[in-house]
Amino acid sequence: MVLQRIEGRRRTRVLLLQSAIWALSWAVMGLAGLVPASIVGAVLLATSMGVFALGETLMSPVQPAILNDLAPEALRGRYNATGSAVFQVAAIVGPVVAGQLLGRHLPVVFVAVLLAGCATMALVVVRLERLLPAHANGVRAEQVTTG
């Protein structure tokens, strides 16, 4: 269903939407921290996870497609391995940073770092859109000529 909804759209625009959705998710999670040990906090936290998952469903089909469309045939495996390695490093570093911030009782800084990460991603995606060849951005030839 997601693939049908994003088909024909610029992949970078989907990534921008994903960045905004993740920022919303982190903001809702931050709000949940304002009402700890309450039903409202639990609902906000669950909502945050659902919103984050929505963003994830947008990123999952787009990021590998861009990577594979940019990779020369002979290097496609290496490009994919590097992409996977980046996600693995993030999966290791993220909890360490989160643990340090939360362990020092800095939840506001923690949420601010997450929101700054989303904003940085959006800025990178805007720049990337100007650099990506049309085919890697999911733009068909007729879309390039018509605008």
* Rg, Å, rounded: 18 Å
What global shape is seen?
globular
Helix/strand order? HHHHHH
Number of domains: 1
Strand content: under 5%
The residue ranges in which pLDDT falls below 50 over 5 or more consecutive positions are none
What is the count of DSSP helices, taking H or I runs of 4+ residues?
6
Gap from first CA to last CA:
26 Å
User: Which structural category do the helix and sheet elements fall into?
Assistant: mainly alpha
pLDDT averaged over residues: 93
Per DSSP E runs of 2 or more residues, the count of β-strands stands at 0
Largest beta sheet, briefly?
Answer: none
Helix content: over 70%
Domain Major facilitator superfamily (MFS) profile: 1-147
InterPro entries: MFS (IPR011701), MFS_dom (IPR020846), MFS_trans_sf (IPR036259), MFS_Transporters (IPR050171)
Membrane topology: Multi-pass membrane protein
Keywords: Cell membrane, Membrane, Transmembrane, Transmembrane helix, Transport
Quick rundown:
This protein is an all-alpha fold and 147 residues long.
Structural notes for this entry:
It is a single chain. The chain is mostly helical and 147 residues long. It has one domain (2-142). The chain is 80% helix and 0% strand. The chain has helices at residues 2-6, 11-32, 39-70, 76-103, 107-131, 141-146. α2 packs antiparallel against α3 (39-70) and α2 runs antiparallel to α5 (107-131). The longest helix is centred in the middle third of the chain and has 32 residues, at 39-70. The chain is globular and about 50 Å long. The protein starts with a helix and ends with a helix. 14% of the residues are buried. The mean pLDDT is 93.
